């Protein structure tokens, strides 16, 4: 296993990033960290990428 | 850790400071010089009455007040220094493990009895604890010069300047807050530092593009694989300056010992461990 991870710089990078993101996701699920998408609030307009349907309806 | 290891680590820190003295010594010195020059220019533009009234007002404002309570006010003049420090810190971290591979001086350093772990740690301690000291020392020198200048002007205008002493004490206490804030920032942003250092150790060229590009890619992959945005949210949740600014000594424990800080240190350590192992691969 160690030999595979340390085979070259790319395998090491992928392993580190995988561990990093898995830890973040697990912690996010356990603590209930609210997953937010780009939600840009300002006095002029509302932008929420996840609510594209709502945006379409408001524009119509 | 025995005496040899301590001396070795001290030598590594000295090396970092010597190699980057432009960022850690010259940059704050030039900024302080510019601020001083601008202040002299501004004073000469003001009338004599305005200057004397301003000095009298400052002396009266701070006279008898607790330096601890007034110290946060002096965080404002520190902003340019903090801004320059962060800018230099990003450049330093980005090049920290990249430059010696480019110059091939890594071959020399790896022939020395210095582990990769110590090398990476020395860079972290340099940017988190040692380099800020030079900025603080420069600010202190600037405050001392400003105090003497104001005092001499005050005496020449026959103004009571005792309050300036309280002002100076508040400025000095604020320097402690600035230093603690920078150290706290380094720990709070350890995941970001780890990310930058990892790509500094990884990239064959343009580490900054690798760091930004892979961050965006990993964010998309997380959304695609897990259907979550915890990476983006994690970064967002750690980007408010009020989370690591220290304006009171009571804030120190609260800022340093909490779940988010410890989790950030753990996650940052994963990336830093990756950077340490990445040092094995020399181009």
Structural summary, described in words:
The complex is a heterodimer of chains A (60) and B (283). Helices cover 58% and strands 10% of the residues of chain A. By secondary structure, chain A is mostly helical. Chain A has one domain. In chain A, strands 1-2 form a two-stranded antiparallel ribbon. In chain A, a hairpin with a 4-residue loop joins β1 and β2. The mean pLDDT of chain A is 75. Chain B has 283 residues and is mainly α. The mean pLDDT of chain B is 89. The chains are: A mainly alpha (60), B mainly alpha (283). At the A-B interface, α2 of A face α11, α12 and α14 of B.
Secondary structure layout plus pairing:
The complex is a heterodimer of chains A (about 60) and B (about 280).
Chain A: H1 2-5, H2 9-31, E1 39-41, E2 46-48, H3 52-59
Antiparallel strand pairs in A: 1-2
Chain B: H1 3-19, H2 21-45, H3 48-62, H4 67-70, H5 75-96, H6 99-103, H7 105-111, H8 116-156, H9 163-188, H10 190-202, H11 207-225, H12 230-237, H13 250-256, H14 259-278
Helix pairs in contact in B: 1-8, 2-5, 2-8, 3-9, 5-8, 5-10, 8-9, 8-14, 10-11, 10-14
Structure keywords:
heterodimer; A: 60 residues; mainly alpha; two-stranded antiparallel ribbon; 3 helices; 2 strands; 58% helix; elongated; B: 283 residues; 81% helix
Total number of helices of chain B: 14
**How many distinct beta strands of chain B?**
0
The general outline of chain B is: elongated
Q: What is the residue-averaged pLDDT of chain A?
A: 75
Largest sheet descriptor of chain A: 2 strands, antiparallel
Largest interface: A-B, 22 and 27 residues
Low-confidence stretches of chain A: none
Q: Give the domain tally of chain A.
A: 1
How do the strands line up in the largest sheet of chain A?
1-2
Q: Report the β-strand fraction of chain B as a percent range.
A: under 5%
Count of spatially separate domains of chain B: 1
Based on CA atoms alone, the radius of gyration of chain B comes out at 23 Å
> Total number of helical segments of chain A?
3
Number of strands of chain A: 2
Helix content of chain B: over 70%
* Series of H and E elements of chain A: HHEEH
Give the overall form of chain A.
elongated
**What is the succession of H and E elements of chain B?**
HHHHHHHHHHHHHH
Overall pLDDT level of chain B: 89
> What fraction, in percent, of the residue positions of chain A are helical?
55-70%
Distance between the termini of chain A: 56 Å
């Amino acid at each position: 296993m160690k030999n595979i991870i340390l085979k070259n710089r790319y395998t090491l990078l992928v392993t580190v990033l995988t561990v990093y993101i898995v830890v973040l996701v697990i912690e996010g699920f356990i603590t209930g960290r609210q997953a937010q998408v780009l939600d840009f609030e300002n006095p002029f307009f509302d932008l929420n990428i996840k609510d594209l349907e709502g945006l379409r309806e408001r524009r119509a | 850790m025995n005496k040899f290891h301590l001396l070795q680590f001290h030598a590594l820190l000295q090396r970092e400071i010597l190699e980057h003295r432009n960022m850690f010594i010259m940059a704050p010195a030039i900024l302080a010089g510019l601020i001083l020059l601008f202040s002299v220019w501004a004073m000469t533009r003001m009338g004599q009455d305005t200057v004397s009234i301003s000095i009298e007002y400052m002396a009266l404002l701070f006279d008898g007040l607790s330096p601890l309570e007034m110290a946060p006010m002096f965080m404002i003049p520190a902003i340019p220094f903090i801004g320059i420090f962060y800018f230099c810190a990003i450049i330093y971290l980005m090049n920290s493990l990249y430059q010696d591979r480019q110059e091939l001086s890594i071959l020399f350093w790896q022939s020395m009895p210095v582990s990769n772990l110590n090398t990476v740690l020395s860079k972290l301690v340099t940017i988190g604890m040692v380099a800020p000291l030079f900025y603080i020392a420069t600010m202190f020198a600037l405050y001392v010069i400003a105090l003497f200048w104001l005092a001499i002007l005050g005496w020449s205008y026959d103004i009571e300047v005792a309050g300036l002493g309280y002002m100076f004490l508040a400025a000095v206490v604020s320097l402690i807050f600035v230093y603690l804030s920078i150290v706290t920032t380094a720990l709070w942003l350890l995941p970001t530092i780890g990310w930058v250092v990892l790509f500094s150790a990884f990239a064959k060229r343009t580490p900054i593009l690798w760091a930004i590009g892979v961050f965006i890619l990993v964010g998309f992959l997380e959304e695609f694989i897990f259907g979550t945005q915890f990476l983006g949210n994690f970064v967002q949740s750690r980007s408010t300056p009020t989370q690591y600014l220290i304006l009171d000594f009571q804030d120190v424990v609260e800022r340093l010992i909490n779940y988010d800080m410890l989790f950030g240190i753990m996650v940052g350590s994963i990336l830093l461990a990756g950077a340490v192992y990445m040092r094995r691969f020399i181009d």
